[in-house]
Amino acid sequence: MVKEKKTRRPKAQTPKGFRDYFDVEVSQRSEMLGTITSVYDRYGFEALESSAVETVEALGKFLPDVDRPNEGVFAWQEDEADWVALRYDLTAPLARVYAQYKNNLPSPYRRYAMGSVWRNEKPGPGRYRQFYQCDADTVGAANVAADAEICMMLSDVLEQIGIPSGDYAIRVNSRKVLNGVLENMGLEDQGKRDAVLRTIDKFDKVGEAGVRELLGKGRLDSSGAYIDGIGLSDAQSDPVLAFLTSRGEDTAKTLSNLRKTVSGSTVGQVGVDELEAIASFVDVGGYGVDKIYVDPSVVRGLGYYTGPVFEAELTFEILDKGGSKRQFGSVAGGGRYDDLVKRFTGQEVPATGISIGVDRLLTALREKGRIAVQPIGPVVVTVMDRERMVDYQAMASELRKAGIRAEVYLGNPKNFGNQLKYADQRNSPLAIIEGESEKENGIIQIKDLILGSKLAKSATLEEWKENPAQIKVVRSKLVEIVQSMLKSIV
Amino acid sequence: MVKEKKTRRPKAQTPKGFRDYFDVEVSQRSEMLGTITSVYDRYGFEALESSAVETVEALGKFLPDVDRPNEGVFAWQEDEADWVALRYDLTAPLARVYAQYKNNLPSPYRRYAMGSVWRNEKPGPGRYRQFYQCDADTVGAANVAADAEICMMLSDVLEQIGIPSGDYAIRVNSRKVLNGVLENMGLEDQGKRDAVLRTIDKFDKVGEAGVRELLGKGRLDSSGAYIDGIGLSDAQSDPVLAFLTSRGEDTAKTLSNLRKTVSGSTVGQVGVDELEAIASFVDVGGYGVDKIYVDPSVVRGLGYYTGPVFEAELTFEILDKGGSKRQFGSVAGGGRYDDLVKRFTGQEVPATGISIGVDRLLTALREKGRIAVQPIGPVVVTVMDRERMVDYQAMASELRKAGIRAEVYLGNPKNFGNQLKYADQRNSPLAIIEGESEKENGIIQIKDLILGSKLAKSATLEEWKENPAQIKVVRSKLVEIVQSMLKSIV
User: Fold this and answer.
1) Is the distance from CB of B407 to CB of A44 less than 8 angstroms?
2) C-alpha distance from B431 to closest chain A C-alpha (Å)
3) Which of A381, A424, B347, B426 gives B377 a disulfide partner, CB atoms 3.0 to 4.6 angstroms apart?
4) What is the pLDDT of residues A86-139, one digit of tens each?
5) Starting from the edge strand earliest in sequence, which strands make up the sheet with B351-356, in order?
6) Which are the contacts of A31, defined by CB distance < 8 A and separation ≥ 6?
């Protein structure tokens, strides 16, 4: 025999910034995606699963003269030919798919997509280089009825996965209204326009007064640093502040406030008309302002969109790590972006859509106790006699046939304590025990592990002696008794 | 305004060997995975979703001195540091995960995994570089009860997704028995042993006589080429042939035949004992030989495994592209491989598992007509008057609230023919029409598109005039009538 050369053992770890998902992290997400799918389906949306790998050219984020175009994405070169990359979102692939197949796709094309995306960014706490996205978009519909539909669908999704009306708000705004405001300000300089957009984006953080300072002379940060302002006069800043704070006591009032801020601007008026139409669509659809409403202070990502934008947030409070209460915040966002397919075909194609933060929603539901952090595990059939594995397997088969999650302990059965430790690790509700004497008497023992662990914490000696957490039943009653015991546990 | 430099438009296509999945291709697979998950869950298996990107070192398929180790995988270098790659299967990541987390995982660890894998191979017809795998493995269980469990679970999976008993067979064999045969042949030379393995792997294609020729002097191929043999004598070849053809009229006979072929070999005897134990486990579990049986002629992939191996095939006939009948063939396979984790930790860890070919199963079910190739689409509410979009959206909302898949036509409504074309493309069962005169009279028209398309093919002029495929109902009965019409369609 040739002696193998000793080599260093490989390290058992994921690459930096990547992670694995275990057990309920996977199954609860998958259940949630199933629920979301059923809502998308009811709205006539159909599934699309595009290739995870795209040509860099089709993703289209890179400068043509960069030798290795992997800024922000994971890219590699195929045999000195094309550069290819892992998709960084689900929207760029949708554009490619629509351009490639538009003659065979329905028009408008309502599609949903769920899957991993990859970003070549610096990983940090809770920030991974591979994560899930869950999108729904309508391509080829210019009418804002499509935007309203997305908002109503989002409302249905949230309620279907267990967030009742009152625990969330879907807020709608419009990039066109903002453009109207900028037009009215007479701000021609693109640099200044962009600066105003970036400032508006800080509204959530710095508030009305902060935005006014940043639009004007500048602002002393809470850290003590002085942030230069854009240098607008107070009069020039007024329309921006009027826009951001134009939410009134009801939708009619909000719209009339907005109309004032854009009076004289055609694009601004169109923007308000569109918001009015959306408000009317959702109202007639039966979605009150407790679910969906126009709110001009929604500014996140406004720069990217070309028309209506929407954001869903959870309004209930949770405790943060420091123990103080805070609102849970945003769980979904989207809007209209009308130049999706143009780079491929030269034709403008209207599109609107939403991206749902599934992992954030799961966190929210866990923190509210609406889904279990560690659900009940399988019934474990223990092995008292390794020669009788067949008997134990038969018990597990019987239980499974009755729809009960069950398994035989398949490790080394020598140490019975290890078997119970295993059952504990699996969060098993019940352990089945059939030793020699039980077998002879035609009985089995069923150990209630949940009651057992309660007693272990608090029982008196008398209670212990009674051993109420372990009962004897005749073998033939296995399924029946397990079923009734599980019913009282779950 | 600065004029944009004209650049070549990007090509809208996937990289070579990659593809997109549309609509039912995605939703039917996802439904099937849901069904499979529910069976895996009932057996106590838990989900694992490992990172799609692994270090090349952890995947461990490559020579250390190759500059770009991308043979067979998609790999790239991270910032002049580690080489990383897309996973090429779900087993190598399982080994890494188990080595990394073994102190926190239950032992034995039953896990299932479903997801894409990537192979950097030459693409061909029906052969893609990204495809799905659906695995279940038990790590840390040396007892063949674990293998039996996998086989029973596989049987449950097949029946649950719609392949009844009689339409499939799960065949079980053992690598240890084969090793016993090789031992008895006195074949010490590793090169010759490997050659025998490769020859055995051709049994399905060339049959008993062919294997005998290839083990001996060689064989004239059907193409006219002469394939050199291994040069064994007839007497040396006998045990191999005896092994391959040892299936008897029942399990007892098969096992006794096998016992003869390995008499005197310890490993061979252990192999037969294990097959006997598996046969006994599945029998007691209620799985007859019509579902699971020992068959020594199962040889696919035998070389890779260390103990029992299993293969599931569909036994019904389908028509191939040429129109001739053939058996559908293999849809799942697996077995025991006991050196999974060793390269990371130095310790041998027993493991056994299965991989299910989900896309092949979907093809089989479609070909048998057990799942729809194009299922019924959404009800389409047409737009006769673009000023009344709100009314049409309200109809869609009403239908959806009743659980009916429905949508408003959101394209340009000018051409009504395009709306019906759209409905047709979506395979819609019904179109709702409410023009000016209908609105005035408080009615709507419901067009039965399926009956309409039947009539269009075969109706007489009289039948046409009656227009039975289009009915008028009062607006308030929309949901009720649509519901009852859908019931008669589906």
Assistant:
1) yes
2) 13
3) B426
4) 999 999 999 999 999 999 999 999 999 999 999 988 888 878 999 999 999 999
5) A21-22, B46-49, B109-118, B130-139, B351-356, B325-336, B308-319, B168-174, B292-294
6) none
Closest CA in chain A for residue B105? A425
Q: Which CATH architecture has domain A379-489?
A: 3-Layer(aba) Sandwich (3.40)
A 10 A CB-CB count for B1 gives 4
pLDDT for B66 equals 44
C-alpha distances (whole Å) from A251 to each of A168, A258, A313 are 18, 10, 19
**Dist. CA A269–CA A279, nearest whole Å:** 15
- As a CATH number, domain A24-171+245-367 is 3.30.930.10
Whether the per-residue pLDDT at A66 is higher than 60: the answer is: no
CB contact under 8 A, A15 and B84: yes
Which of B18, B36, B41, B51 should one mutate to test binding to chain A, selecting the residue with the greatest count of A CBs within 10 A? B51
The model's pLDDT over B236-286, given as tens digits with 9 standing for 90+, comes to 899 999 999 999 999 999 999 999 999 999 999 999 999 999 999 999 999
**Spatial distance between the Cα atoms of B215 and B177, rounded to a whole number of angstroms:** 18
Considering only residues 90 to 109 of chain A, which have any Cβ-Cβ distance to chain B shorter than 8 Å? 96-97, 99-101, 106-108
Q: Do domains A24-171+245-367 and A379-489 have the same CATH topology?
A: no
Instruction: Reply yes or no on whether the pLDDT at A421 is more than 60.
Output: yes
- Quote the pLDDT of residue A398: 96
Q: Please choose, from the candidates B166, B410, B282, B448, the residue with its C-alpha nearest in 3D space to the C-alpha of residue A143.
A: B410
How far does A13 lie from chain B, in Å, by closest CA? Answer: 6
Yes or no: say if B388 and A280 are a contact pair by the CB < 8 Å rule. no
Pairwise CB contact (< 8 Å): B51 & A96: no
Read off the pLDDT of residues B93-137 as tens digits, 9 standing for 90 and up. 999 999 999 999 999 999 999 999 999 888 888 789 999 999 999
pLDDT at position B321 over 90: no
CB contact under 8 A, B152 and A284: no
Residue A160 CA to residue A126 CA, distance in Å, equals 27
- Please enumerate in sequence order all residues whose Cβ is within 8 A of that of B244, keeping only pairs 6 or more positions apart, or say none: B200, B203, B208, B211, B296, B297, B299
Query: How close, in Å, is residue A167 to chain B by CA atoms?
Result: 20
Alpha-carbon gap, residue B196 to B188, rounded angstroms: 12
Q: What is the residue extent of each domain of chain B?
A: 16-142+338-375, 379-489
| Interchain proximity B11–A55, CB inside 8 Å | yes
Read off the pLDDT band of A475 (50, 70, 90). very high
Confirm if B67 and A32 have CB atoms less than 8 A apart.
no
pLDDT tens per residue, range B150-187: 999 999 999 999 999 999 999 999 999 999 999 988 88
Parallel, antiparallel, or unpaired for β A379-381 and A406-408?
parallel
Which member of B58, B394, B406 has the closest CB to residue A44? B406
Task: Give the CATH fold of the B16-142+338-375 domain.
Answer: BirA Bifunctional Protein; domain 2 (3.30.930)
Contacts of A85 in chain B (CB under 8 A): none
Read off the pLDDT of each residue in A170-198 and give the average, rounded to a whole number: 89
**In Å, what is the CA distance from B365 to each residue of A25, B356, B372?**
31, 14, 9
Least Cα distance to B166 among B286, B283, B290 occurs for B290
Q: Residue B163 corresponds to which tokens in the numbers above?
A: 């392949």
CB spacing of A9 vs B346 below 8 angstroms: yes
Contact A10 B411 (CB under 8 A): no
